[in-house]
Design goal:
The complex is a heterodimer of chains A (638) and B (528). With 638 residues, chain A is mainly α. Chain A has two domains: 556 residues, no CATH class; 67 residues. With 528 residues, chain B is mainly alpha-helical. Chain B contains 19 helices and four strands. In chain B, strand 1 and strand 2 form a beta hairpin. Chain B starts with a helix and ends with a helix. Classes of the chains: A mainly alpha (638), B mainly alpha (528).
Chain lengths: 638, 528
């Protein structure tokens, strides 16, 4: 770029092409909605992934343009003023800086692979056009979330991805359970969004009282010193926005929707409920790092919520027997690590883990999808086994995913997770211990999953065994690419993410003792070894998984009865209250009062009606009496 | 021009009056054409509207009853402009939808609707209070008959309940209007019903409070604000589809329009004093309406209670007394008219086919009616307030404005237990709005298609798609491009907000004075 030589300092460059990153997927939406009925499957298979590839290429252009500029620069595309009311001005403006550049590359890159995969996965579904409409719309919303230059626009994407998540979880709507899972996802997320809105309002008016009317990230950052004098208000803003993050990024206490979200088609679980949407909370906090940094109180709460979620979800992952549920709890747990990263102020490490996790978790989910596809919609791992031989590409790539998430050196997960734990050690040894133990647990339940699903001999019925087949290339190719990324994603000389993000978050690396550095790796290997001893070594790895016996096992399998508790404490009382309000306040109190008043009036009216008999003679009579009375009165007075 | 728009529907009604009964089918066409013409004419208002002016424009004035200072005096500003447009926009859609669901006394149905339209437009454009009252009452009678004649099983009960509720309120308002004119007489020596002159009256606070109460009661019933809402579910359930659409789409707005046009600017001091009460009722309404909507077994009742919740948002925004809240409230009036109007039309579609509104009778409709389900989906999310659609803009601005009014005291955030409860209850509407809508949608559209009756359902016809297409287009348009609407109402809203500003400033300087005094006291103590 011609500015490159002049731009020794960070600068903002105005461009007009960023909008296409969002518009291209939207064009895909319109195509799938209106044109697809004419073109059929072939048109959809071409256009739906095609527009995402287009968006990826534009994102790549933006990335390289940004690379030419001085560190800390940004590209901004102001499309039009969206909402103006009084002092409030919200622009539809998009912004690419180092942080959002990483994000759009992940979203479009991984998103493209999953679109391609889906053309294979949904090949037999007659509603494929509707599926790709939603998937394209999701990608557009997610990109808007990431590119939005202000909090309000981020919120548009934020709710948009929630909508698509709802639609895709309930995609197979004839099953009421799936439809209900969609409801749950949207409603739980809305609770978080209410907190988000309050945080946004507080931020807006607090700055407004200082004469700064803005929701724009860059302007908030410029004026951050005006806020810095009010630490308690900052803490309130940070925590309210974090409530939104606990919804979207499935943290305690709002994580309950994510496991149920597995009701959606598996590519959806990979893209939305693992790689991209659920990371929105982490992205939002990283975006507002300058705000969060000002509130150590908020950060320490966030760190603990993250660590607790990482640990808690891992315990549930121990006992699950549904291949997608294991991955779902593992996702909740890994998101906990990212939140922990943010909480200890290691935003760069959090985003780094976000990226590596996007690679290996998308890989794992797509692998699970391939298994489910090959097993004809079977999801119970107890009925699988021995799949490594029958589905070699799926099996080996799945193994790579497991190794990556377990934190084995050389693969991506090791580098990003260890970075977070080292930073956590810098804040509190306790956080480090919880996170490190969690790392061992992760390795254990992931390899438990691997051994039971792929190892030894198959436990499927004879007829089923006959039908098991490797998936078509549209599904295996993305697996191979993602497996490659899961290996090299952590290599600094390939993806220098930390260095790339340094101008935004600043760079500082704590020096930690060697033992602290090695401990997570040791725990990872311990977990793998333990899983091998308990499952891999056995002739039938699934032995003893049939009936969970002890209370611990049972509790973990039932997710510690959190759903039941929420149902008893919140949902049921609320509906009972609603029913009571309607039947008592509306019907018994208000209506009865009004009707009683009406009745009293009615009695009066009835009394008056005796007068009005409708009988002409009576009227004539009263007329006569009246007239005589008037005459009499007149005569008397006169 | 304003008068032409106002009375064109009445002209159509007159034409219909002379239509012979054997040509009754033609009544549909005449009514539809009249309403379409009215809409086109009202677009003319939009075109000649000057958005840089906050006061009334396109004013027409002629003496009517000079002895009492009553004029025929009409005009529009940025607030009434859009409400007139909303009315003229919804009306053709109602006539179009009536092709399917009105089969008895077609001619009378059309006449009543056209008279109703004139009444509604008239009430929105009247600048003379007496004229406003006349139009206000003109609206009432056709609606009474529409419910009473074309309604469901309990139509008589519902119609009378509707009439009595509204009458009680409007009588009090009439007394207040007359007293206002009398005050003008004692102040200036001439009776006047001219709103512009009455704005300038200096009314003692005590009198303000009484008259404010009378006006607000009348409007609160119309909105309807909790606890004056119980006529609404009955009226909606019994009313024919078109009646429900107009009731929810336009007539409820008459209440909030009355607040922003009359009650608040005429009696700013009283409005300021009473704001906590009205905000409380609005917030209770948001929460209460949503909760009760959640457990309704009847589709129409559900939408009716959702109106209570949504209109609570509007009142909340109006009493925030800032630009964001008030503009949001006016915008939300339009949103509610469009999305709730669409929801009633949608319920009407299946009612017409199945003759039941019970949610439990449905299930799995998506399989059978995908176009219907998709349109319902968009409308539902417009009502829930999903960003990108119209509902969000209104809700966002209202809550933003209300946040300032509730949480901020004297320029900084000061959280008390009560303000926290207020704000949390208001924001709970955002969550509960999703709850009752999604639960309903899931039970109607998703799940297996089991009921044999539902397997016979047909998807939307071309005519029906034509009814919904403009509504959907507006939902998207207003969600993506709210500024053309907001900028046109800005100046007029500013006039209202500016009238409230002195009240707030008085309060603010009072508080500042107190703190200053306190510091002075503290200082003197210190020096001792």
């Amino acid at each position: 770029m011609e500015h490159a030589h002049a731009a020794a300092t960070a600068a903002v460059h105005t461009v007009t092409y960023l909008r296409w990153i969002v518009f291209l997927p939207l064009i895909g939406v319109l195509f799938n909605l209106f044109v697809a009925p004419r073109t059929g499957r072939r048109g959809v298979n071409l256009v739906a992934p095609g527009v995402i590839l287009g968006a990826f290429l534009v994102a790549l252009t933006a990335f390289f343009d940004l690379k030419e500029l001085a560190p800390g620069s940004a590209l901004v595309d102001s499309v039009y003023p969206w909402i103006t009311a009084g002092e409030l001005h919200i622009d539809f403006a998009l912004r690419v800086d180092a942080l959002s550049a990483v994000m759009i590359l992940i979203v479009t890159g991984v998103g493209f692979l999953i679109h391609v995969y889906s053309t294979g996965y949904m090949a037999h579904d007659e509603d494929f056009a509707r599926f790709f409409t939603y998937l394209n719309l999701f990608t557009a919303s997610m990109l808007l979330l990431v590119l939005g230059e202000n909090l309000a626009l981020l919120f548009v994407g934020w709710e948009g991805v929630g909508l698509c998540s709802y639609l895709l979880i309930g995609f197979w709507y004839t099953d009421p359970e799936k439809a209900k899972a969609g409801n749950k996802a949207f409603i739980v997320n809305r609770i978080g969004d209410a907190g988000f809105l309050l945080g946004m309002f507080l931020l807006f008016w607090t700055l407004g009282e200082q004469g700064i009317w803005t929701l724009s990230f860059s302007e908030i950052q410029t004026n951050i010193d005006k806020l810095a004098v009010m630490p308690s208000v900052i803490t309130a803003i940070c925590l309210l926005l974090f409530v939104g993050a606990t919804g979207k990024s499935a943290q305690i206490p709002l994580f309950v929707w994510l496991p149920d979200a597995m009701a959606g088609p598996t590519p959806v679980s990979a893209l939305i409920h693992a790689a991209t949407m659920v990371t929105a909370g982490i992205y939002m906090m990283a975006r507002l790092h300058f705000l969060y940094t000002l509130s150590p109180d908020a950060l320490s709460i966030i760190a603990w919520v993250g660590a607790a979620t990482a640990f808690f979800a891992a315990t549930i992952g121990f006992a699950q027997t549904d291949i997608k549920k294991v991955l779902a709890y593992s996702t909740v747990s890994q998101l906990g690590y990212m939140v922990l990263g943010v909480g200890v102020g290691a935003y760069g490490a959090g985003v780094f883990h976000l990226m590596t996790h996007a690679f290996f978790k998308a890989l794992l989910f797509l692998g699970a999808g391939s298994v489910i596809h090959g097993m004809h919609e079977e999801q119970d791992i107890r009925k699988m086994g021995g799949l490594l031989k029958r589905m070699p590409i799926t099996g080996w790539t799945f193994l790579i995913g497991c190794v990556a998430i377990a934190g084995v050196p050389g693969l991506s997960g090791h580098y990003s997770k260890d970075l977070i734990l080292e930073e956590a050690y810098g804040k509190s040894i306790l956080l480090y211990v919880v996170g490190t133990v969690g790392a061992g647990m992760t390795a254990f339940y992931m390899f438990r999953l691997f051994f039971v699903t792929f190892w030894k001999e198959t436990r499927a019925s004879h007829e089923m065994t006959h039908h098991i087949h490797e998936s078509p290339w549209t599904m295996t190719l993305p697996l191979v690419i993602l497996a490659g990324l899961s290996i090299i994603g952590g290599w600094h000389f390939v993806f220098p993410v930390s260095q790339w993000l340094e101008p935004i978050f600043g760079g500082h690396h704590p020096h930690v003792p060697a033992i602290i550095q090695f401990m997570p790796t040791v725990m990872g290997f311990l977990g793998i070894a333990l899983a091998y001893m308990m499952y891999g070594r056995k002739a039938n790895p699934a032995e003893g998984m049939e009936e969970p016996l002890d209370a611990w096992h049972k509790g973990a399998l039932h997710k510690w009865y959190i759903d039941e508790m929420y149902d008893a404490v919140i949902v049921r009382p609320m509906t009972a209250l609603a029913d009571g309000l309607w039947k008592v306040i509306d019907v018994k109190v208000i209506d009865a009062t009004v009707n009683d008043t009406a009745q009293v009036t009615g009695i009066f009216g009835g009394a008056l009606r005796l007068w009005q008999t409708g009988n002409v003679q009576n009227y004539a009579m009263s007329f006569l009496i009246g007239a005589m009375a008037i005459f009499g009165l007149g005569y008397y007075l006169w | 021009m304003v008068s032409v728009v106002t009375f064109t529907p009445l002209l159509g009604a007159l034409v219909l009056l002379f239509l012979k009964r054997e040509h009754e089918k033609g009544a549909r066409w005449i009514a539809f054409a009249t309403s379409l013409l009215t809409f086109v004419l009202s677009i003319g208002l939009l075109c000649s509207f000057d958005s840089t002016v906050g006061t009334f424009q396109l004013v027409e004035r002629a003496p009517w009853i000079p002895d009492f200072g009553i004029d025929y005096h009409v005009g529009i500003d940025g607030i009434s402009l859009f409400l007139v447009l909303l009315t003229t926009f919804l009306m053709p859609l109602i006539f179009l939808s009536a092709w399917g669901d009105v089969h008895k006394r077609i001619k009378e149905y059309m006449i009543l609707f056209l008279v109703l339209e004139t009444g509604m437009i008239g009430a929105f454009v009247a600048i003379d209070l007496f004229l406003f009252y006349v139009f206000w009452e003109v609206m009432l009678i056709p609606m009474y008959f529409l419910i009473g004649v074309w309604g469901g099983a309990r139509r008589i009960y519902a119609a009378i309940k509707f009439l009595i509720y509204t009458m009680v309120g409007s009588l009090l308002m009439l007394v207040a209007i007359l007293y206002l004119a009398y005050l003008h007489n004692t102040d200036t020596g001439a009776v006047s019903f001219n709103l512009l002159q009455l704005y300038d009256l200096h009314i003692p606070p005590q009198a303000q409070l009484w008259m404010f109460a009378a006006f607000v009661l009348s409007f609160a019933i119309k909105v309807p604000l909790f606890p004056f809402h119980t006529w609404l579910p009955d009226a909606h359930v019994e009313a024919p589809t078109g009646g429900s659409v107009i009731l929810a789409g336009v007539m409820l707005k008459m209440g909030t329009y009355g607040l922003i046009r009359f009650a608040i600017p005429l009696f700013p001091q009283a409005a300021y004093i009473a704001a906590p009460i009205l905000i409380s009722l609005a917030v209770i309404g948001i929460f209460y309406g949503a909760l009760v909507a959640m457990v309704q077994p009847d589709l129409k009742k559900l939408v009716a209670y959702s109106s209570v919740s949504h209109m609570g948002f509007v009142v909340l925004g109006l009493f925030a007394f800032n630009m964001q809240g008030t503009q949001g409230a006016v915008f939300q009036m339009l949103n509610h008219g469009i999305s709730t109007g669409a929801l009633f039309l949608l319920v009407g579609v299946v009612y017409e086919r199945r003759h039941t509104r019970l949610i439990s009778e449905y299930g799995g409709l998506w399989k059978q009616m995908p176009i219907y389900a998709t349109i319902f989906l968009v409308t539902m999310f417009s009502s829930i307030g999903l960003p990108g659609l119209n509902g969000f803009v209104g809700e966002f601005l209202i809550l933003l404005g209300a946040f300032k009014a509730i949480i901020f005291v004297d320029g900084s955030a000061a959280l008390s237990l009560w303000s926290a409860i207020y704000m949390l209850t208001a924001i709970s509407g955002v969550v509960l709005g999703a709850v009752y809508m999604l639960w309903m949608y899931q039970r109607v559209m998703f799940g297996p298609l089991e009921n044999e009756e539902n397997k016979k359902l047909t998807d939307l016809s071309c005519r029906e798609v034509l009814v919904f297409a403009p509504l959907l287009a507006l939902m998207v348009l207003m969600g993506l491009f709210p500024n053309p609407f907001l900028s046109r109402m800005e100046k007029s809203v500013d006039v209202v907000v500016a009238r409230m500003a002195p009240e707030q400033k008085v309060h603010y300087s009072d508080a500042q004075g107190k703190t200053e005094k306190n510091t002075v006291v503290a200082q003197t103590e210190h020096t001792r």
